[in-house]
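Could you show me some protein's one-letter sequence and the numbers that encode its backbone in two labelled lines?

___
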Amino acid sequence: MMEKTIALTQRETYAPGRFTEFLWWLSTAEKELLADAVVDRNRHKIIGMTVLTTWAFATLAWTYFFSTVATSGWLAVLLGFFMGFIILTIDRALIKGINKFSKSKLLPLVFRSLLALTIGTFMAQPALLYIFNKEIRLQTSLDNEKKKQLKSQELTDLYKNKQTTLLSEKESLQKELQIKYADVAKARQNFLSETDGSGGTGKVGIKDIAIAKRNEYQKLDGEYQQLVNIEQPKITTIETALKTMDDTIKKEEADFTNYFNDGFLTQIEALNNLIKTNPALQFRYYLLVIILLLIELMPVIAKTILPSGTYDERAMQREAMEKEMVSSNISKEKELKELYNSLAHQNDKEAISAFFDLTKEERNQKITGFSQQWKQEKNQTFNSLWETMKKEVLTRQEH
C-alpha cells in the first residue's frame, strides 16, 4: 500500500486543546503565533498555570474575607469572584508588558511587588484566622472580657464624683440623725432609770424628777421625729439617685456587651494580640505572609525568569508587519482618494464646458427675444432690460 503524501508545510500543524488555549489566554499569548512556537508552548502553559493559581487563591481568600462581614453566603462568593477577577486582570496586564524587547523589566516587577505586599499582607490575615480559628476565638473572649472591665471602670470613673458627693451628703444626714437619736436614747434611758430606781435619785415611781426627765425625753423625741420627717426624704432622694446611677451603669454595661461579636476586625485584633504574646504564632505568621507574597508574585516571576524563545520574536515581527501594512494601506487609500478627486475634477470641468457649449445658442436666442420685446415696448428703459437679462440669462457665481 502506498503512503499518502503530505505537504511539507502541513506536517507540523498543531491543534491545542481548550484547556491549553485557556492557559495561553491567561498568559496573554496569541494562540495563532504560539501554535508554531514549539518550545514556547509549554512555557506559556506554565505561566498560565501560575496566573490560574494566583487567581484561584485570590478568589478563595477574598471570599473568606467577605464571609466574615457579609450577611449572605452568595454575596460573599460573588464579591470574592469579583475581587479575584480584578487580581487576574492586574496580573495579565503586568505580564503582557514583559518580554525580551521590553525597555524596562524592573518597573513591572517593582510595581507587582508593592501590590503583592499590600494584597498578600491583607490576605494572610483571613488565612491565619481560618488556620488558628480556635485560638483566636479564645483570645476574642479574653479581649471582650478586658473590654468589659475597662468599660465598667470608665463608667465608674464617670459617675464617681457625683456618687461620692451624694454618699457624703447621705452620710452627713444619717450622722445628724444618729446624733439626735443618741440624745433621745440617752434621755429615755435616764427616764426609765429614774422610774425603776436603778438610777438618778434611786426612788421608784413617777416623781418630780422622773416627770422632768420624761418631759425632756419626750421633747427630744419630738425633735428627733421632726428631724426625721425633714431629713428622711432627702436621704430617700439621694438613695434613689444612687440607685438610678447604678442601674444606668448596669444598662450601659449590658448594652456594651451586646456589641461584642466575632467579626473580621475583632478577630484581627485578637490575632494581633496573639502575635504579640505568642512567638510561635508570630514566626508562622511572617512565614505565611512570605509564602503568600511569593504566590502573588508567581506570574511576574515566572514571566521574568523563564527564557524567551521564538514567540516574542514572532510577536515583534508580526506587530512590525501589521504596522507596515497599516501604513501601506493608508498610503494606498490616500492615493486612491487623490486619484478619485483628480478624475472627478477633470470630468466636472468637461461637463461644465459641455453644458455651456450646448446652451450657448439657446441663450443667444433668448437674448435676441428680450431685445426685440424691448424695442416693441416704448415705455421700457434699458436698465429694466438689463435687469431682466441678468435674472433670466446670466449665471450666478458659485460660493
